[in-house]
């Protein structure tokens, strides 16, 4: 992991001509209501959320449901995402709990000291990408620039989450426990790919009251170059921006424009697991 962080730091520092706006560091926690090792990590999310410039996100996986308690927040796509992270580093093992910091650093098990150390390294990185997100009613205005231009496209993703939910678990390894979960991810949507050779200026639907965050991430999945939560805008600014910006869903795919909207995508191929904390398939 230390080598990965060092490589990422070199990549960012070499690519950035000047310091950009503060980057929100994303910390993903892969967890399950059916995992007896997970509650301390679930509680740690609250501590991470209290830190400025940090956004922890809880992604509940479904591979512990067979024990006898079906995790009400689990989605197969979150299991697929965790497996994709494992494939990206040549691993065939996944764990709960597992923290992934900045899309790059993996911390298996509950290890707050290691997680905080990795978090500190990512907070010190300087990204070549600036990202700004504004809410306009039920839509988000997403603007980004890269200086210098990126050499490979990045994925533009929209994540929605519930700030806090308390669950009484009746069966499984955590039977009889009442646990409060924070920043529980409900959707992780790929909006499209941005080339990073020109400004990004698109809109995305984001109805409802659930908080949202936009994440720009290297293919893999790998390093998260930028993440931002929406800021409110004045009505006059909102009206002007609405006229000037084309919806990402309505815009025709165009590499010339630097953004290609995501087509309907099939689920990623499954990854067999063996050993570790995850059950064998």
UniProtKB/TrEMBL annotation:
Instruction: List, alphabetically, the InterPro entries matched.
Output: DUF1223, Thioredoxin-like_sf
Protein's UniProt name: DUF1223 domain-containing protein
Q: Give the record's keywords alphabetically.
A: Signal
What top-level branch of life does the organism fall under? Bacteria
Signal sequence coordinates: 1-21
What SUPFAM superfamilies would the database entry show? Thioredoxin-like (SSF52833)
One Pfam annotation reads: DUF1223
Positions of region (Disordered)? 230-281
